[in-house]
Structures are given as structure tokens and as C-alpha cells.
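Lab notebook, bench 4. Still working through the backlog of constructs that have no structural model yet. Next entry is a single chain of 222 residues. Request: give me the C-alpha cells for it.
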Amino acid sequence: MDVLEAIRTRRSARKWLPKAVPDEVVEQILDAGRWAPSAGNFQPWAFIVIQSPETKERIQKVAEESKNLSRIWAPYFREGRSRGYIVDLRHVPLGIAIFADPRHAPPHTGGEMGHIIGASLAAMNMWLAAHALGLGACYWSHMMPDKMKVIVGMPHHWDFIGLLGIGYVDGDGSPDGYNTADPKYWERRPMDQVAFYEWFRCQKGEEPPAEKVTLLKEYLDL
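Model written out:
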């Protein structure tokens, strides 16, 4: 599987077979994360492998509490709605919790986000690696960060980036009672709504608005 195929065919799997992920495969996935790019090559990440039932039980409690909080604000997270399911993380064969150290954010303009961006790129590397190796994965980030930190012993100053759940997919990977394999679930916005040339909302061949370009020159000498 080449990179472009992996990108196009990757999906979020939320149901797995009760089959352990071999150690050598875990190492390959972690190594893919290790090779992610980061500003200044600061490599601001830490990956915590989660396989024990006790840790999974603790994480499941945090996931349920976090989802119930979200249900107060967002109706589509409520039971029976499009995102109403709570995946039972106790049944995820392999978890990788991803954290980022703000002390390794580069001292650039806007650099305070550098560690988060780097760790997020590492998460995507691991997800694509898992897919290429024949596994399915899902990524959860809306979980109470301080509780996620204490569950795995992370120092307080680290940022929780997300939890990547990985395993061999059961069926189409849909959680019970939902059909997340429906192609409509994975529709993408048309290219002309997300990609532009030289200026926001300019299509190929169009010129940026002259009055805005003039203001750039007048006030910023750009």
C-alpha cells in the first residue's frame, strides 16, 4: 500500500476483534510516530503504550465522563444521535496515548503551538502505519486531559494530545447500533471549497483582490 492509497482508504474503526497486536507490529507503529517531522527536530512527543485491563478500565471511565459532558453542549453526542455512541475502550487491543512537552516548542513567532503540531503529526504517522499494516484505528482527543495524564503518570506540564486505539477490525468497524461504514459518513467537501490559489477563495487562474494587495503594500510593505 502506497502513501496516497493509505490516506484515501484510512477510516476510523470503532470495533475490534479480541486479538492482540503482535509486539513487532506495535514497534513498527511506534517507530512511524518517532519519524514524524517536528519544528527544529525537537521531537516533543511521548507515546504511552496501553495494553493492561486495569489501565483500560480507568480510561473507559474518563471516556464516559468526557462524553457525558459533551452531551450537555452538543445534542449530536446524545444517545441515539449521529455521534451518540461511546466506544468501549476496554475492548481496544492496543492503545497509544500521545502527549507533547511544551518545553520543546521552538521559540518562533507562534511557536507555542509547535509541540502540539509535532505530536499531532506523529499521531497521523502511526495511524497511517497501522492501516498499512492491516489494522484499524480510531483517534480520541476529547477526553479530560488531567485525568488522562495521571492515569499514565505523565507530569502535569505535558499536554494530552489524544488516544489512538488500534486493533484488527471486527466487520466494518462500526460500533454496535451504528453504521459508520456508510460512504455518506466519510464524504469530503469538494476541492474548490477547501483549496485555493494565492489568496483565500481564489480559484486557479483568478487574481487576488487588487484593493487588498494594495493595502498590504501600503501598511506592511509586503
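Notes after review: The chain has a mean pLDDT of 93. Residues 53-73 form the longest helix (21 residues). Flag for follow-up if needed.
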